[in-house]
Fold each of these.
Amino acid sequence: MNDAMLPGEARFWDLAQPMLGRAEVTRSTMMGLPCLRWNGAFFASCDRRNGDLLVKLAETRIDALVAEGRAKPFAPAGRRFREWAAIPDDRSRTWKRLLDEALEFAIEHPAPRKTKKKG
């Protein structure tokens, strides 16, 4: 483990390792945070500021996790990302399941392909 890594980030990469065996899953960064992408679309990250797991799921699922107290809204700079939740390190026993769920969500809901504007 890198000494500069918070325990949450180290746990994130440990859990992500099996996913990285799939050709469609890649490491990247999102807003300067380490993240995972499925065919280029973000689906999970780790907040280096506090070690929280960040996952992208359906907005209704995020709302349910927040209402149940199992997650916090992800709102960097005060703007809430409706399909993203932050799962605190003290709930890390749920991280693997939520990472798997986020990957499945990304597979089932591919990001729209960007098209080039005709000049």
Amino acid sequence: MNNIKIAENFYLREFECRDGSHQVMLHSELLRRLQQLRTLLDRPVIITSGYRNPEHNRRVGGAPHSYHLRGMAADITVQGIEPQVLAEAAEKCGFRGIGIYEAFLHVDTRAQAARW
């Protein structure tokens, strides 16, 4: 399901809600910037969390107004690149919301810049 190539290096299934429902919502700007990041790094960008439906978002402890709920956010990893270094590359690609965590990086396409 959702095995549709939507960019040079991404398939729609990568952005599905991780609750098994195959639901997906994806903002075009998020996809465009993730593809820019993939091209810049010349390494696969792994989406560990893309779209979340409200129930799944609550279950995983997501923020009530999370950008994941609108298909405007992704939690990502890139093998061999620490989240702090990945954040610097994400900023170069125009991501406005950037959250650095121990094992992954949150990126989103919110209107105003935010870092945590």
Amino acid sequence: MASDYVWAAIFVAVGVGFAIVSLVASWFVRPYNPKGQKLATYECGERPKGSAWVQLRPGYYIYMLVFVIFDVEVVFMFPWAMALRHLKGTSLAVFALVDMVIFVLVLAVGLLYAWKKGVLRWE
């Protein structure tokens, strides 16, 4: 059992080490020429119009947060459904089902709260 943790630690160390070595190597190899066209704002090949520092309404951030919440919910529900399929007929399956119902209810309460506050209204 302890050897499982050793192998997991080795894989984590190799992964982190590879990321660090790659970033440091690319920092040394890359060309550094911060002038002219490189400092211009890039907008899909079009010439930029105005400043790149445009302030957006806070409502856009609310939409983004609600999207992320429900996106994360789906990301959690798919593996849960696959695991629940293998737990069919056990008491652990009932516990897992109750856990997911609570999770979805908490998210639903958050959605209802946001809806009642009117933050989902697009103006």
